Amino acid sequence: MPHPARPLGLPDLTPGDGLTATAAGWHVGSPHVRFNTQAALAAGWYEVRVAAASHDRFAVRKRLELTFDAADAGLPPAREAFAWNQSFAESFVLKLTRPAAGVRLDVRHAEGPFSLREFAVTPLNSRRVVARAVREKVRLTLAYDCLGGAARRALRMLAGGRFREFAMKLMRGLTDSRGMQLGRVAVGEANGSWRRRHDLPAGRADAVRAAVDAFANPPPLAVLLPVDGILLDTARLSAHSVRRQLYPHWHLVIAASCGPDLEEHLARLLPDDPRVTVVRVPRSVGRAGAVAAAVAACPCARVLVLPPGVELAEDALFRLAEAVAADPALDTASGAVAVGFVAAGQGGARPRVRLARAAALLGRTPPELLTPEALAAWAGGGDAEVELDAVLAYPADDRPLLDRARVGVVPAVPGKTLWLAGDVRGVSGYDHVVFALLKGLPSLGADLRLHPISAVRTDLVPPSMVPPTAARPVGHPQLAVGPPFLGGHYGLDAATAVYTMWETDRLDPAWLPQLNAAGLIVVPSEWQRDCFRADGVTPPIEIAPLGFDPLVYHPGCAPPAVVTFGTAGALGSGGLRKNAQWVIDLFRRAFPTEPHVRLRVKITPGSPGLETYDDPRVDVIRAVLPPAELAEWYRSLTAYVNASMGEGFGLHLIEAMACGRPLVTANHSGLTAFFEPSLGYAVDYQLVEARNDIYRGQWAQPCEESLIARLREVHADPAHAAKLGEACAVRAKGFTWKEAGRRLAAALRAHGVLGGESS
């Protein structure tokens, strides 16, 4: 089937029911209207340009779906969706893998004046496709600051005759350019975390989406989120829960009480979404003043005030919109209604949402303490209440709002009280360290209290292990756990010990004042201690390595019959530190044709995609595995490959060694606490400047040819690899969590942070 003789444009579209032509464009008379064109399209590459605008109801989220209908009876060869409030314009390239019989545009919730400003589908010849692919690839590599590395890899492909692979990577620039954007990694990780905690069952979610699509004149809702320097991290969870709403007709108003130093962090809460407005007042004005200013700036007649750290359920805004739309009495004569947050009543009563006039809110002083009860009193006045059946929101520690209240005074516990400042929001990294401390510190006589801004998910931590939350009096002992840039969140002073680490040899100078305010710094390796001291960290520095659970991570079976390599990590910032994509590329260079060798890659759900080149020998798992399954994954390997530029300690590495698997790694950074070349396959490396949005200083760039040579060594003699694995398991026994706890407790006692005698 040939390409059309000319590009498809606006004159080719036929309007459907509910569309009336006007001098300015169209008048949309129903929640769902459609444009059609029956022009046939051949398989191939096309440039698509679409632009639309609404002329009122800007708080309502509109959606346009562009579908290329199949010429046969199969699924559509391509479908794209766009959402906007006032206007949008998109230009992109897509490939039709088979012919299309026509194109249709479905427009939803654009009732009223509407303009389809541009519509063009233009076939591209091979020369234009290649030129655009080169331009987009260069733009992407510049955005991720990896142009030099990408160019070197491209030259090696061409020099090695790998033309098909080169073409595949080049053409991916056309499609990656729409999905790979700076900031999307954090959003993806937030999505993955959400799905593990709050995702609705598929049937319920589909039913809500269908109801939203059928909603006539959906009421827009504003969500007001108060933020300051202390609440920034917990507010990020709340902000992402708004973005995840199945009901799209929302506007997020962030009420920020902070200085200019937090402007960049505020911009990252929900980047590049026109439905987000930030209202910032000076820090001296306080939270109440920020909330009052934000209420006045709300673009919607109805506003839900969301306490920071509270995450909305996926269907929360839909349920509220349903309740407002179903009861005309809730609309006052002015049409202005505010939605205030209220917890459940006593005795297991259903949750209530209080509705009040927005004009009344403007005349009341917002509360300083943003609890559900305080917000309920602020939105009070007895105007109306709506009773709902389901949980609307969850606090940051993941317990349903209905079950959150504690009754009575927390009984005193003998011993020296220790405040623990740290989060358990996942199962790896610092979260894993905090979990181990929650489990082990009480056995050492510590009377634990949880810092008020700490977030501990109770689906990950048994309730019996979660200490009571209490405000920390100034000067009382505190253990803060997290990366060095989070020190300021916990109010560090001379009574605070900070358990931290970093992946390069250089700290940001802006972090030093907070770290130097602490009384003790604890790091997991001598390398880390030397780096911190050289960077200007002045408090005493003690060493307490991290650990593993020997009941979970231990040799349990012989290595696999087929030589299998593995690597793992959370690929933040495009995966530039962990280098998982690089491991895949070097594995395929090391074994271009050998059928009896495997590579297993485990990444977190929010990590950017990896290119496997459809190689059946490469297995990618995108999941957070429970500890027992993770141990089985380690034991399925012959050797663990670490191509990371740097490690603060390397939990994956010590766990792999504990399971009896040797490492293929550069012998540098925090992993030197437990690894040495005699235990595995040391890779040559060179120190290079870190080029990343959060790292500075130097880290270790593994040598490509050296890593390939080590992979081939393992493949040539798997029996020797098994013997090295046995030695690794013996070495790892000195790094259990029990031993780590003993070292940490000794350091804390020596500096007066933890009471009692050393054991």
List the helices and strands and how they pair.
Layout: E1 14-15, E2 19-22, E3 25-28, E4 32-37, E5 44-54, E6 62-70, E7 78-84, E8 87-96, E9 100-108, E10 112-123, H1 126-143, H2 147-159, H3 163-179, H4 184-197, H5 202-214, E11 221-228, H6 232-243, E12 250-257, H7 263-267, E13 276-281, H8 286-297, E14 303-305, E15 311-312, H9 316-326, E16 338-344, E17 351-356, H10 358-362, H11 372-378, E18 384-387, E19 393-394, E20 417-421, H12 429-440, E21 447-450, E22 478-481, E23 496-499, H13 512-517, E24 520-523, H14 526-534, E25 541-543, E26 563-569, H15 580-590, E27 597-603, E28 618-622, H16 627-635, E29 639-642, H17 651-658, E30 663-666, E31 681-683, E32 685-689, E33 698-702, H18 704-716, H19 718-732, H20 737-750
Parallel strand pairs: 11-12, 11-14, 12-13, 20-21, 20-22, 22-23, 23-24, 24-25, 26-27, 26-29, 27-28, 29-30, 30-31
Antiparallel strand pairs: 1-4, 2-3, 3-10, 4-9, 5-8, 5-10, 6-7, 6-9, 15-19, 16-17, 17-18, 32-33
Description:
The protein has 759 residues and is of the alpha/beta class. The protein folds into four domains: 10-126, Jelly Rolls (Sandwich), CATH 2.60.120.260; 188-401, Spore Coat Polysaccharide Biosynthesis Protein SpsA, Chain A, CATH 3.90.550; 417-542, Rossmann fold, CATH 3.40.50; 563-735, Rossmann fold (3-Layer(aba) Sandwich). The protein is built from 20 helices and 33 strands. It is globular and about 80 Å long. The termini are far apart. The model is unreliable at 1-5, 179-198, 331-351, 381-391 and 394-414 (pLDDT under 50).
